[in-house]
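Section 5.1 Outputs to date
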Amino acid sequence: MKRIKKQWLFKSALLVYLLLITCGNVPVKKFYVINYEPEPMRTRQFQGPYPYTIRVKEFTIEEAYARPQLVYRKSPFELEYYFFRAWAVKPVRMITDAVDKHITSTGIVSHVVRRFDEGAKPEYELSGHIEAIEEYDSEDVWFAHLAIRLRLTRISDGRTVYMRRFDRRKQVFQHDAEYVIRELSQILDFIMSQALHDLDVVLAKEYGITPENTPESGDTLSGGVDSE
């Protein structure tokens, strides 16, 4: 049954391709990647790097988004996938790499690693789960939508010292996949800037410094919609 279904899908795709050739309009498949330059942290509880090593564990992702095609939706109940618009890197690897790069660039801790056997022994592990990474079309208005849960665990006792959920939408004024990716990149930059501010406070407390504006465990940044 599976073999018959695969053959049917292949024949359908081939038919669409032949029709496009006949019409003289063959779309070009395009590939995209989240990309931005992290900005330095403006305020910090402790000016030097905390003498800790953080392991960035590869994130997990909702199954609906664990595929190469870009996802778009027009309602909360139906997902659709672009055929000629795809990620250049698996979304879960792409987001994990961006988070790793952002943390490393700030110098908030002495070392950032991806594996336990990579250099210094980590005291903390940052994990994350991608709940949504998509284009959201609401009639004539487009949004870039990214939702992520982050968790920082103290490895010595397995205790969660920080956890927060981020859910952000940003309006896309030019209705093109490239501009959706640009806005998704800006959203991730914003999320990580907020998360690093939180981690600065958490690590200050772990280090014995009395921090200001202590984030509450389980705090959620959600429902945010940017239109600029």
